[in-house]
Amino acid sequence: MISAPDSKQRKKVNALLISATTNPGQKSLEHAHEMIIDTFETAKRILLINFASLSEKRDSYAKRMRTEFSKIGAGYDMYSLHECAFSECADAVNAADGFYVSGGNTFLLLKELYDRNLVGLIQKRALAGTPYIGSSAGSNIGGEVIGATNDFPLVDIPTRRSLGLLGAVYNPHHPDPASDKTQFDARQWKIGEFVAHNRDQAVLGVTNPGMLRIRGDKVYLAGAGAAAFIHRNEDRFVVHSTLEDLGPSL
Ligand code: ASP
Known about the structure:
The protein is an alpha/beta fold. The protein has one domain (14-249): Class I glutamine amidotransferase (GATase) domain (Rossmann fold, 3-Layer(aba) Sandwich), CATH 3.40.50.880. The protein has 7 helices and 11 strands. It has helices spanning 33-40, 58-72, 89-94, 106-115, 119-127, 137-140, 181-197, and strands at residues 14-18, 45-49, 77-80, 98-101, 132-135, 169-171, 203-206, 211-215, 218-222, 228-232, 235-239. It has a 7-stranded mixed β-sheet. The protein has a 4-stranded mixed β-sheet with strand order 6-7-10-11. The radius of gyration is 17 Å and the shape is globular. The two termini are 24 Å apart.
């Protein structure tokens, strides 16, 4: 059974949890280019994990991601886990310099990883410092559990436990009250119920331009115009700054 790492075990984490692959008004991943480069550093052999996509869409998605990454920088060599046989998956994870876990349906993503017995292995490598970038569903599984995904449970999963690279639960695509107060209120209510029931878990809701940059236990909000809404028990914070370490609030 996978367990949530403590802050000592997270000391080497180098991760980026992007809220949305496409920030409205920009091209796919455009808003995250700089942070992707910052996170991957010299990592070039990138394992794409696109199990959040429906199986019939995975080939075309991988093709599109390879094109996207060629725009981000030279030399990225992206190979995709969906092209590996079950027996080859652990080797594919072990051979990666970095992980890119794309969006879609979070339940499907986590199930496919549990089916291949890979959650513990990816967690182990990411805790050892292998860069991990998630987008949307890929960010959800960077949290301790997939407790605040917006997705329908398309499939059953053995457990909601996920990688725990962030010492909290992630909620992507959090509405911004300036543009949609009704959706904002509805989401805040849902997250409020989650934290009232799970008193030991914080939830971080991140608006579409935003992404969490994680270095060990330090967590920063990046992304122009982004906001993060933090809930823990009765406490609520909103953060706009990219400079403040959110770690102590989690
Ligand atoms: N469906 C989202 C995604 O794009 C995940 C979520 O909203 O929880 O991956």
